[in-house]
Specification:
Blueprint (H helix, E strand, L loop, with lengths): L2 H8 L1 H8 L2 H8 L4 H28 L3 H28 L10 H16 L2 H23 L9 H7 L4 H15 L4 H23 L3
Helix pairs in contact: 2-10, 4-5, 4-6, 4-7, 4-10, 5-9, 6-7, 6-10, 7-8, 7-9, 7-10
Length: 208
């Protein structure tokens, strides 16, 4: 089993908790209150900005041209996600230029950017892989339920698509090649997964 598979299986309890979280279940069946999704869109746009920057920092540290190209390709994928969020924001009146990050958002972005600045590319891939693999897992799991058309179906379609899965696989390939199964990497992977769960919980609990 590869390191990326080992990390995913070891910390799959948090992935399952995310899938069964009421926020994600509401995305799946279309019952999520629009106000909670609007808050999530703003927070996720702030997060994705940091995520793209972390990819760019990792690319600058890449020891090979091939790794440099892959990190930039992954950053392009994040830009496509941001465009989707832009359409959501326009639809529901969210001003992405003036989003104030919540505590859960700031906790996650601070972790990613400090890892990007302070660690080597392999460790950066470990910190970033949970987000990519989790969203592919969530999108594919919700799509398998074959939900009827509803306002959040584009979210499900995006993360269950044939375009998103290869991005997660690309990042995991970098992880497998350049990272080791160390206690530090295990802890970083779990911390990122815990940040994902806290991110959904914050959006679910927000009072607007």
């Amino acid at each position: 089993m590869s390191l990326s598979q080992t990390l995913w299986q070891t910390h799959h309890d948090l992935a399952t908790a995310c899938l069964h979280h009421p926020f994600v279940q509401g995305l799946g069946d279309g019952t999520l209150p629009v106000e909670k999704f609007a808050y999530y869109v703003g927070q996720d746009a702030f997060f994705l900005d940091a995520f793209a920057r972390a990819y760019s920092i990792a690319a600058a540290k890449a020891p090979t041209w091939e790794m440099f190209q892959v990190f930039h390709q992954l950053a392009d994928g994040v830009l496509a996600e941001l465009n989707l969020h832009g359409s959501y924001a326009q639809e529901w009146g969210v001003d992405l230029a003036h989003v104030a990050p919540g505590a859960a958002t700031r906790r996650y972005t601070d972790f990613l950017l400090s890892t990007a600045w302070g660690q080597e590319p392999g460790a950066i891939a470990v910190a970033m892989a949970p987000c990519m693999r989790l969203y592919a897992f969530l999108g594919q799991s919700l799509a398998q339920l074959n939900p009827p058309a509803h306002r959040y179906r584009p979210w499900i379609d995006t993360y269950s698509s044939d375009q998103f899965e290869p991005l997660a696989t690309q990042l995991e390939a970098l992880l497998d090649t350049h990272a080791a199964d160390t206690p530090g990497n295990q802890a970083a992977y779990r911390y990122a997964m815990d940040c994902e769960l806290a991110f959904f919980e914050a959006a679910w609990q927000i009072k607007l």
